[in-house]
Write the structure tokens for this entry.
Amino acid sequence: MNTLGPARESIVRERIARATGFTLIELLAALVLLAAPVRGDEPAAPRPVQSVADAMSLALPGTVELQGWLGDKLGLCLNRRVWAQNPEPLVAIIRNHHDNGDWRGEYWGKWYSAAVLGYACQPTPERRGQLEQVVREVIKSQGSDGYLGSYGEKDRLTVWDVWCRKYVLLGLLAAYDLTGDKTALEAARRDADNLIDDLERRKIKLVEIGVAELKGVANSSIIEPVALLYQRTGDRKYLAFAQSIIAQWNAPYSTAPQGIHLLEKALEGAPPLQNHAYAIMSCFEGICELYRATGDRQYLDAAVRFGQSVRRHERMIDGSASNHELFCEGARNQTEFLEKPQETCATVTWIKLCAQLLRLTGEPVWADEMELSLYNAMMGAMTPSGEWFGYFTQLTGERVPSFIAHDDLNLSCCVASAPRGLLLTPRWAVMTAPDGPVVNLYAPGTAAIKLADGAEVKIVQDTDYPVSEQVKLTISPVRKQRFTLRLRIPAWSKRTALAVNGEPVACEPGMYAKLDREWTPGDQVLLTLDLRGRVLPAPSGAPQLALMRGPILLALDNRLVQPTDTAVWLSADTDGIVQLKPLAAKPAWAWMAFEVPFQVHPSHFYGHYTTNLALCDFSSAGNDWSEKNLYRTWLPQPLFLGNAFPSHTWNLLNPHSAAEPRPVIPTRVQAKDATAKP
Ligand SMILES: [Zn+2]
């Protein structure tokens, strides 16, 4: 994906922040407070936002350019999905207030926040003008009482109203962060004020309204934009409102007679509540923002423990979670047929939450998680042309396009949301710690990172990782300079070689290699990661194995392996390592394909022999998106090849009933030239 350089205002803001020693958030809040007109109803002397500095900061917009396979995929998503979407019908949903029980009001905010991430990759004046125009149109729809949502007056606060307003607020805040335009911030304030006042006046608890089955978790996720509003305005009303939502979780209420105690249970290390997966993860994104705003350590501890709990109990082998959109003990159950597994919105929100945890803690485990989700669940959910996504992703079955939730708009929740996860990638691929750059993702491309003193370091990556294992990084400060370059050594890379200008350097899996030295323009770092095939046992203890190669999950695909009357056992050495050989005749549809040794046991305890089967990367498996193209990740031991590819599993995925036809990509959004690059 071609990125054109940093957005100018971001550089200015960052320079001021560096010069003054304040974080960007503190400075923005201070600027807002200084510039805001004094109104009688505002606190006489708003207290400044108390903010915690991130351990690592996301790359500034436009400073990281990703190329190669990954860059092409991001470009497809940006050009075929985000920019191909006409935002006007999404704005009209808010303008016309017709939802009244529907949830289409979320679309504009999801699209807009993805488009802002996309603009950071391609900051052209035309796109900037479009983003400014679209947000102006939304703000025009704001009622005189401040309401800005998709519901008619009598239906406000019912069903999905608060959920939709959460996305409207996130869109407005993304606009404010992009342009600094105070009218967007003011519109967000007025909508939030209307919500807070309305709840108070009508004596309604936020957790008691909306869809009863969700016990208020969807509404509660408004914590995120409300905490962001507090950071940007310093108005403690928003802090109090966000904290009141957490307090509501701890008391009995109509749909949860025991309360749901999301924060307390997270602190205890309890498994995630078996409720709406991405709404709960969004609540913890909000809790991360509360920590950033207040410095209250319990918020950080709760978010980290919740993230660990998702890893342990819910995250499946390709980096997603959920069944029927709910947490489901996914780690244990993932080898079974789940009816509606791994909502793409859950993949997106898991990536976004991991990005928050990485920023706050600087722990590389969260980047390991994002890499896994990106290359497997996220990329696997995108159609080859980038114009559409799956709603659910099966670990064994077939790829099925998301159903169209709203015919008039040709959209669904996951199609609207997916680019928010994908287009975040350049921002976390290379980050900055206080003492130097952090390389989290190895992919061909360049990064221009500003050090604490304002000097720039250019990092060029020359690699086709994760296809092959070697990454060459050229580090070029403007002149000789001492700083620490951090390189993520993934936890799975047990045998890693690292050298700086030919000198070997020790490093450990699951840690950052910290290269603290005086760097000279053109210094070379050579990193060789361990891409040997490795076997992962089913967390449930079921006799099933999965095969990984670095961050890539491998899968059987019925275009590579035909059913036969043979049973096979995956052949690994005692350390769980499988010898993989690149497939000589790799088909064009596969990103990667390998010959994998399996054992055949034709007679009881003798005469065993090895046969090779071809497996491909999970994102390529099933990428014909048809009922004829079947794949499998978990491999029962033994695996009967006559029964390796269950068919018609799309019936399990249909959102409403198995009687409905198999969903298709809407004709109107189908890419005209499916093979062309963006
Ligand atoms: Zn969704």
About this structure: The mean pLDDT is 92. Residues 343-345, 413-414, 417 surround zinc ion (CB under 6 Å). The chain is about 35% helix and 15% strand.
